[in-house]
Design a protein that fits this description.
Helix 2 packs antiparallel against helix 3, helix 13 runs antiparallel to helix 14 and helix 17 crosses helix 18. The N terminus is likely disordered. Helix content is about 35%, strand content about 20%. By secondary structure, it is α+β, with helices and mostly antiparallel strands. It has 25 helices and 24 strands. Strands 12, 13, 14, 15, 16, 17 and 18 form a 7-stranded antiparallel sheet that branches. A 5-stranded mixed sheet has the order 2-11-10-3-9. Strands 5-4-7-8 form a 4-stranded antiparallel sheet. A hairpin with a 4-residue loop joins strand 12 and strand 13. The chain starts with a helix and ends in a 6-residue tail after the last helix. Bound molecules: zinc ion.
Length: about 700
């Protein structure tokens, strides 16, 4: 079954009355969206969010059977026939497929198939295109009618519109019907009509520019474009098709799905190239995994993989349930959107004093990972989205992207839910918070704010800044709690002895406080010691000056390679530095003139932290690698360097270092456990360097010879 995250919401203890109210509210919302979706092609929520509501209703009805009603949307098969188009009865019912919501369900289905036939037959795997189903009827080799799926039995006649879809042939290629059982009989070809992502985005940009309502997603844009009263409008939309079935397999003398796909291609239809005839469960699972991986890079939307028993005779032997064929299943990708409960909105204080509202959610599995918190960015954002504690909210997480709260399902809002009020004081130190003109953020400006201190200290030790290995949140947090640290200069007065004796917040079996111990303490001290020689840009970044991040720090240091030089620069001069805007310039200028900050910088300098770009031999090094672009991937174990360090060393010779591989990449240097960049390099034919070759480049500054 689907991951447990989604059950958590539904399984929360409810009285029967509460459950009944919730079920009622869910049904109304689902019905409303069904109408918006099918009749108006204008849903207000995504399919995934709709499915999420439907799942919650289903699990409520399962937990409280007395609440089930005959007219519940959970009992109905989707679909809707509009009156403005002529109804078309399909030659054979257009079934929808049963779904496998995860790998376990797919394996279960394959096991059933194996049991049914006594062996696992060849399975044809195809991408599940997220479009709108279409049935094209040909007679004597000519396209005569096109219909939507409708409710599966009866669809709508959209022939005039489909005639305007560019990739649909008006006639089959000559000779196609040689394999027809009866060349004069009508032949119904089925598939999916869709709108490419880029065309969808262009269409929505246009709609917005003209003040029209944008489409919710490419599928609705395709369905809406297909169901236009004026065929000229359909003609103006970029629609495309993938065909993959015929209504009656006996109509053609073909053995199976694979052969049918070849035939469709030869007959002139557009057939998706990503198909695979699989002989084992492992191959099917690998195809699904690979398809999920490429999902984002395809020019059209897919939402899963369709797996079919290839052989038509075997398909016939398996037959149908009342809803769907037994010989096929749709493996659905994990949804990228789910609905869940917003339990609270908490406020986090960052190192620059920014207050960030955070949504605390009933944990829910989205796109394969459990989401329990999501940033709400700032006060305006909370009000713009109008999310309130107690709301059912839609959470989105696509790929590696940070989870996001899209907004509430307003109709499911509990009575009395109040708009969120931003705090007037800092939740960490109690100081009054301010909001500067033109700023979206609330800010605590107290110098003594412990939350800010902790964040600033953690920023100093972070990988982008001083990269002090082992100095994590737990240890720094303890040091702040016991009053040992309040600013970044305090790191450099720590002793091994006091770190070794530092009591962590935990106790051992005997109830004694666990201390850090000498081994860890010694490592930390040497890591702190090593940080004194870090690049000056890292020091500037590490100070946590507002608007000065890793890249801006590097740009500043190019022009002002020491603290002396930086302090002497005027605000105008700083503004003139490439990549430094007025705000950043004003920020750093003010920072260096604030007595508390100057004090910290002086103490750092006295402790031995380098306050100037370290003059490496070859400061004016020949730019022997100019014009070359390197990409680094994997762990550089032999070189004992971080990728950032290796990148800096390459840049010193004038090379460019990029984070992604393209045809323009000159070399990809590969350490241990390289990621997908390595695969991409091989695919694009970009030369690959191992660590020894990279070392030679760094040692000599000469371009590699391959
Ligand atoms: Zn504060």
């Amino acid at each position: 079954m689907a991951a447990d995250g989604e059950r958590m919401g539904a399984s929360a203890q409810r009285t029967l009355e509460e459950a009944a109210q919730r079920a009622d509210a869910l049904r109304q919302e689902i019905e409303r969206n069904t109408y918006l979706y099918y009749a108006l092609d204008a849903p207000e929520i995504s399919d995934a969010a709709y499915d999420s509501l439907m799942r919650e209703l289903r699990s409520l009805e399962a937990a409280y059977p007395q609440l089930a009603t005959d007219d519940s949307p959970t009992k109905r098969v989707g679909g809707y026939v509009e009156k403005q188009f002529t109804p078309v009865r399909h030659a054979e019912r257009m079934y929808s497929l049963d779904n496998a919501m995860d790998e376990a369900e797919l394996i279960e289905w394959m096991r059933g198939i194996e049991e049914l036939y006594g062996h696992l037959p060849a399975l044809c795997c195809e991408l599940k295109i997220d479009g709108s189903s279409i049935a094209l009827t040909c007679r004597g080799g000519l396209l005569v009618q096109a219909a939507t799926r409708g409710d599966g039995t009866t669809g709508e006649d959209v022939t005039a519109n489909v005639m305007n879809v560019k990739d649909i042939p008006r006639a089959l290629r000559p000779g196609s019907l040689d394999v027809a059982a009866d060349p004069d009989a009508p032949l119904e070809v089925r598939g999916e009509i869709y709108m490419p992502k880029a065309s969808f985005e262009a269409l929505n940009r246009e709609a917005e520019a003209e003040g029209r309502k944008p489409f919710a997603n490419p599928r609705n844009a395709a369905a809406g474009s297909l169901r236009q009263k004026d065929p000229a409008i359909t003609a103006s939309r970029d629609l495309a098709t993938f065909l993959y079935a015929i209504s009656d397999n006996a109509a053609l003398k073909l053995k199976g799905q694979w052969e049918l796909l070849q035939w469709l291609k030869e007959a002139g239809f557009h057939v998706n190239p990503d198909v695979q005839l699989c002989q084992s469960r492992e191959e099917v699972l690998a195809f699904c995994a690979a398809s999920l991986e490429k999902r984002g890079s395809l020019p059209y939307e897919i939402d899963g993989v369709v797996v079919k028993v290839n052989d038509f005779a075997l398909q016939d032997a398996a037959g149908f349930t009342s809803r769907a064929p037994k010989w096929a299943i749709a493996f659905k990708f994990p949804p990228e959107e789910k609905t869940t409960l917003l339990r609270a909105i908490t406020v986090q204080v960052g190192r620059t004093g920014v207050l960030t509202p955070v949504a605390e959610l009933e944990p829910v599995a989205v796109a394969g990972s459990v989401v329990a918190r999501a940033t709400l960015h700032n006060e305006d954002e909370v009000h713009r989205k109008d999310v309130r504690v107690g709301d059912t909210v839609i959470v989105r997480k696509a790929g590696d992207v940070i989870p996001e709260v899209l907004g509430p399902v307003i109709t499911l809002r509990p009575e009395g839910a109040l708009p969120w009020e931003a705090p007037k004081t800092c939740p960490s130190c109690g100081s009054r918070v301010i909001r500067e003109e033109g700023e979206a953020q609330l800010r605590c400006v107290s110098i003594d704010c412990p939350a800010q201190a902790l964040e600033r200290l953690l920023h100093w030790v972070s990988r982008d800044a001083m990269d002090i290995d082992g100095m994590g949140e737990e240890i720094v947090g303890r040091l702040v709690e016991v009053g040992r640290m309040s600013d970044v200069a305090d790191f450099y007065s720590l002793t091994e002895e006091e770190l070794a004796c530092l009591k962590m917040g935990r106790t051992n079996k005997e109830g004694e406080a666990i201390t850090l111990g000498h081994t860890v303490a010694a490592k930390l001290i040497s890591a702190i010691e090593a940080s004194k020689e870090r690049d000056f840009a890292r020091v500037v970044c590490g100070l946590g000056i507002r608007h000065i991040g890793k890249n801006t720090a590097a740009q500043l240091v190019e022009v002002y390679p020491s603290m002396e030089a930086l302090k002497d620069a005027s605000e105008e001069e700083l503004t003139a530095v490439h990549g430094i805007g007025e705000r950043a310039a004003a920020s750093i200028w003010a920072f260096l003139r604030t007595p508390d900050n100057v004090d910290v910088i002086n103490r750092l300098e006295r402790a031995g932290v380098a306050m100037a770009a370290i003059r490496m031999e070859g400061e004016d090094r020949a730019q022997t690698l100019a014009g070359l672009t390197f990409v680094l991937t994997g762990t550089l174990t032999e070189l004992r360097m971080s990728r950032d360090e290796a990148a800096d060393a390459l840049k010193a010779y004038g090379a460019k270092v990029s984070s992604s591989v393209s045809k323009k990449t000159s070399f990809v240097a590969v350490g241990d456990n390289p990621g997908s960049k390595y695969d991409k390099a091989v695919k694009l034919g970009v030369p690959v360097l191992d660590e020894a070759q990279l070392k030679a480049v760094l040692d000599t500054g000469e371009p590699p010879v391959i």
